[in-house]
Amino acid sequence: MDTSVTIEHVHRDDEGSKLGMWLFIFTELLLFAGLFIVYGVYRYLNPEAFHLAAQQLSVTVGTINTVILLISSATIAMASSAIRLKNKALTLILLATTIIMAVIFMVNKYFEWSAKLEHGFFPSSDILHKLGNGDTLFFGLYFFMTGLHALHIVVGMVLISIVIIRVNKNSLTHENPVLLDNSGLYWHLVDIIWIFLFPLLYLIT
Amino acid sequence: MAQEEVTQSHVSFRDVKGKYTGLFAWIFSTDHKRVGLLYLYSIITFFLTGVVLGIFMKLELMAPGRTVMDAATYNAIFTLHGVIMIFLVVVPGLPAIFGNFMLPIMIGAKDVAFPKLNLLSWWVYALGAIVALSSLFMAGGPPDTGWTFYAPYSFKTNTNMLPAVIGAFILGFSSILTGINFIVTIHRMRAPGMTWFKMPLFPWTLYGTAWIQILATPIVGITLLMIVGERILNIGFFDPALGGDPILYQHLFWIYSHPAVYIMILPAMGAISEIIPTFANKTIFGYKAIVISTLAIAFVGYFVWGHHMFTAGMSGTALYVFSLLTFLVAIPSAIKVFNWVSTLHKASIQLEPPFFWAASFLFVFMVGGLSGLALGALATNVHLHDTAFVVAHFHYIVFGGVGFAFMGAIHYWFPKMWGRMYNTRVATVGWMAFFTGFCFLYTPMFLLGIQGMPRRYYDYVDRFHGLNVVSTVGSWVLFIGLAIIIINLVRGARKGPIAPKDPWGGKTLEWTIDSPPTLENFEEIPVITKGPYDYS
């Protein structure tokens, strides 16, 4: 009587995994949707202050970061194709490029944030309170939204690192690329949220 | 040889030896049945905690003025009662326990689509519970805002809000993971031949529930994060002094929390839809109508959140729209009730404990539903808003509806889950005490509310005294009933007679396999040719 195996059948369903990932992405979009609503409401209530406060953000840095994220989205999508072409080296290069892009994004973010902090534009600072409620809310939202987005970047970096390790160990190959595909989907989500954050915070002035 | 094969493949999932033994064999098992039972044991623990807190609340309200505790303790206790019962018990309740255990079996699958994710969701649940309850043991004491965490008080109070709010956020994740898992499972893993309209009704309601879980939970997630931001960074999202809007918080909160009551009630309706045809020995009346009304409730349920805020300050148009939509959502619920009653019409009914629970569910659910319409109407709402009437309505739906369906479900599926039978006579006595206590506990609150007694108040004027005494005594009777039920079930699980495969004469797939099921449920995946309730 052999009862030593807990799970006997190995269930694998790539379509199912992708469906699950898409559903998860919907939940992430909805998470940010709540913030977009709050942003919309306060922009509507404080149009003048939001207009002026947005001019404090550097469009150049924002644009650079947008381009970086778009490129990184392209490289990870190419990695999905590369692994199917059984080109391990190229896959690893493309994944590494994605991570490097993410790091550059975070470095830019760091400088941007520290500049804001230096000028006293941070939640509950006296300078903001003196400027008025609209500015307080704008910078509160700015830090909250970009902060949450940066957190997603970090999660994405961890995910891609796991993929790199597994590709390197040959435990993720052209036969089971679904983890790489799903990480790619997640990375595109991070990208697309930025595509919304960038105009909302930087461009509409 | 044939004999050997039988012994080998008929080992119950409870006796399978895995990598670990003892407790670890449970908390590291990805078997959907073990995960379901893990949820069951944790949820029952929290449920009993919540019940005890509720008993203390009723005890305090037995007489005006101070009875057993001071006002601050009372505030903390009703907040904890709400947080525990909503986030830890009722929201995960039926989907996480019976959904996990029964869904794969009922659709003819060996497990859910993502077994590891399933186990993870229990771990996330346990983490969320620990974080939420840690507020009890920190300086400052447990939160006192009520389970709704209304701004601006939730970031002004000195009690430990952060653990409760972060805990609720983490619990949301667990809910989302379960939802994703169930949707993918239902889409991808139905047995061959089981078309959408050959799927039993409990999986159908889980499907509707799962969609609400993934579409509504993120909104409350971000809202709770904003409360965290308010408390730590003082951002001003909901602080009028900094330009924020507390009403916006209420909107964001109820955009989730109203659909959340459908997360609670839909699987309950599904369980009732399983119990009634089995004990009526009849095909369910209006199968498609029940399916469509399930989806309709899930859909319309998104657009009615404003009825929690009729007196909070909204435009006249918004008031009318939300009121109208609230009436609309009552229609599919009523369709279900008519279908259940029609199923019972001219049936030869088996009078067993699960049926008693289902029948009393119909009663309490109708009282709860109709009193909900009284609250959804604008004119009466102004009078009844924030009174004990709301508490009575809410408990008739959530404790009456979901609680009774839960009790029905556990008595119905008990022989399948533990492979043994409980004493049906004791179970009936327990049900009688519980049902009687329930009616005495909550019916007076309807009257108190109409007379003007506010909810959440620690003290009241003398003319409310009599009905409050009735209510408190009711809570004791209910508690006695609950004790009888639990003792009976525990005894049954340990020493009850061995249950056959199909003790009630049910026709859905779970009654075709062993009690308790083997590790992989089915030796061979069944091929479905008929509808789920085939009594012909």
Automatic annotation (TrEMBL), chain A:
The keyword Heme belongs to this UniProt entry's keyword annotation: no
SUPFAM superfamilies, A to Z: Cytochrome c oxidase subunit III-like (SSF81452)
Signal peptide range in chain numbering: none
Entry keyword set: Membrane, Transmembrane, Transmembrane helix
The Heme-copper oxidase subunit III family profile domain, residue ranges: 1-205
Ranges annotated as spanning the membrane: 20-45, 57-83, 89-107, 137-165, 185-204
Cellular component annotations (GO), alphabetically ordered: plasma membrane
Membrane topology of the entry: Multi-pass membrane protein
Compartment(s) where it occurs, according to its Swiss-Prot or TrEMBL record: Cell membrane; Membrane
Pfam family, one: COX3
Gene Ontology molecular function: cytochrome-c oxidase activity
GO annotation terms (biological process): aerobic electron transport chain
UniProt similarity note: Belongs to the cytochrome c oxidase subunit 3 family.
Protein name: Cytochrome o ubiquinol oxidase subunit 3
